[in-house]
Write a structure and sequence with these properties.
single chain; Rossmann fold; seven-stranded mixed sheet; about 45% helix; binds glutamic acid
């Protein structure tokens, strides 16, 4: 009967992309009309102004958001992004993907995402601390261990999570470790959380290479984005025996067919903050990196980098989506026609991060801490279960792997909404 008019607030390329993915999946599983818009659109959002006193005494007001997409199966869950190009629509799309991701891998969570429009590299340590604390201060009544549990994302890290946990704990008057995940170990962070997303990407990439009868020891790897996810993906694949031939960050990348010395690259990054002029190979642009001949291409930076244009020119065998939303709808259509390339979709491929966030939250709530081996064993088991379910779904309905993963995630959220009914 009536069509929704809900999306104008979030309208943007990336939100439309997430909506198109949803529509396609909803059609594929014949999701009843009465459940569609309820399942698709974010439940609520908060936009805040964040005044921060700068080093020179002036005050800058930053804008921040938190979008809670779905809370039907538990607290909403998802990272907070600090990046100069953040928009409310982007945060909403990322929140949607968190819902499908937590649901696909079977976590008792909904989906959410936060963001602040800021380039964290332009802030001093103390400005960054003030911004992070102010963000959490504004979110105090909107988040919580049983409501919405933030975590790191692009531009945020465990130090920022520590400030946020401290701010929230001061407000409620007791230690509230479970309010954020991705904390330092000293504050209740989990063993293995820092490397979890990249470790999961690498674990799944190796698994799919095996399926494709491509030995990981002969694989070459190109990684776009050398932040937390990209660098851990590169290290883990290298440790499995693969050769990492290209890496990049927002300043550009390096290509070395003999293999990049990752430790040197990480040391360079620590001292220079960017990969620009790193002499471990010949310079390549981010666009060139994507089109290099390699076995595994791991986009681990931002959304919408694989487009209908460059998708035709890719020369990899397997795309492992460490980033959220790196492939546009148009690129998906091109890739579906290319039987020389397999793809592990983001909601499955990078789910290791939120899986270990879940372990961290469980450890915080029970005050009982696990060893690294226990964490990794449980992580691998959950990744295996989720990827096996995706394979079954793909075969059963002849779906692309992305459609298989999305339909599983979306169906579970829709089922929960259906069972709970409409209130009042
Ligand atoms: N930001 C990560 C993601 O996109 C992790 C979220 C979390 O651990 O809650 O999956």
């Amino acid at each position: 009967m009536s069509k929704a008019i809900v999306s104008s607030l979030y309208d943007s390329d990336v939100f439309r992309m997430a909506c198109r993915q949803f529509d396609k999946a909803a059609d594929a599983i014949n999701l009843p009309e009465s459940l569609r818009d309820r399942t698709k659109y974010p439940r609520r959002c908060l936009a805040v102004s964040l005044p921060v006193r700068r080093r020179d005494g002036s005050v800058t007001v930053f804008e921040g958001y938190r979008v809670q997409h779905n809370l039907s199966t538990g607290p909403s869950k998802g990272g907070i992004r600090f990046h100069q190009d953040v928009t409310l629509g982007e945060v909403a799309a990322l929140a949607m993907w968190m819902s499908w991701k937590t649901s696909l891998v079977g976590l008792p969570y909904g989906g959410a995402k936060g963001g602040v429009i800021v380039d964290p590299n332009q802030l001093t340590e103390s400005e960054l601390e003030h911004l992070s604390r102010r963000y959490m201060q504004e979110m105090v009544n909107f988040v919580g261990p049983q409501v919405d549990v933030p975590a790191p994302d692009v531009g945020t890290n465990e130090r920022i999570m520590a400030w946020m946990m401290d701010t929230y704990s001061n407000h409620v008057g007791h230690v509230a470790s479970a309010v954020v995940t991705g904390k330092p170990i000293a504050l209740g962070g989990s063993e293995g959380r820092r490397e979890a997303t990249g470790a999961g990407v690498a674990y799944l990439a190796r698994k799919y290479l095996e399926k494709m009868k491509l030995p990981v020891s002969k694989a070459t790897v190109a990684v776009q984005g050398f932040g937390n996810v990209g660098s851990e993906t590169a290290l883990a694949l290298r440790n499995y025996g693969a050769k990492v031939i290209a890496i990049s960050d927002y300043t550009g990348g390096v290509y070395n067919p003999k293999g990049i010395n990752l430790e040197k690259a990480l040391a360079y990054l620590r001292s220079q903050r960017v990969l620009l002029d790193f002499d471990g190979g010949e310079p390549v642009t981010n666009e060139q990196l994507l089109e290099l001949k390699c076995t595994v291409l791991a986009p681990c930076a931002l959304e919408r980098v694989i487009t209908d244009q460059n998708a035709k020119r890719l020369r990899c065998r397997l795309i492992a989506e460490g980033a959220n939303g790196p492939t546009t709808n148009g690129a998906d259509r091109v890739l579906e026609q290319r039987d020389d390339i397999e793809l592990i979709p983001d909601v499955l491929c990078n789910s290791g991060g939120v899986i270990v966030s879940y372990f961290e939250w469980l450890q915080n709530l029970s005050n009982y801490y696990w060893t690294r081996d226990e964490v990794l064993k449980k992580l691998h088991a959950m990744l295996d279960r989720a990827s096996d379910a995706v394979e079954v779904q793909q075969r059963k309905f002849k779906f692309s792997r992305r459609l298989a993963a999305l339909t599983l995630g979306i169906q579970r959220v829709a089922d929960a909404k259906q069972s709970r009914g409409l209130f009042p």
